[in-house]
Amino acid sequence: MDMQVLLIILAAFTAVAAIALAVQAAVMVGVYKSFRALQEKIEALTPKIHSVADHSLAAIQESRVKIAEITAKTSQILDSASRQLTLAESLFTDFSGRARSQLDRAEMVLDDAMGRVQQTVGLVHRGIMRPIREINGVAAGIRAAMQYFARRGRPDPDRATADEEMFI
Description:
By secondary structure, the protein is an all-alpha fold. The protein has helices at 3-151, 157-167. Helices cover 95% and strands 0% of the residues. It is rod-shaped.
């Protein structure tokens, strides 16, 4: 290759490199301007961000205090509920024990009353019903004797047949 051609190629590459550097410099200037514009916008927002951060921090501090109060009150409520539940359980246990003993006593009274009623019925049966049956038996015997004597003689054959059939 000839020196002249080599110089032209070298010049062309140098021109291309110069143009690339110029374009790169223009891009860097654009990036710098964009960065500066962004920095100005951020600087404008910085007081607002600090204000929001301060308010957030204050709200978090207030929330911590309120959460601590709520936690303390909740703990007190749970302790009170636990004591009330223990008291209710002891009252229920006492009530069920008393109710059981009262039911046992009522059962004993009822059993005693039923036994006395049975004794009374037995006494009435032996003391009143037996003599009444005996009196009825004596009265039936007297009636039969009076009927026999009132008939004076033998019963008629139809009656005798009926009486015999009754025993057969």
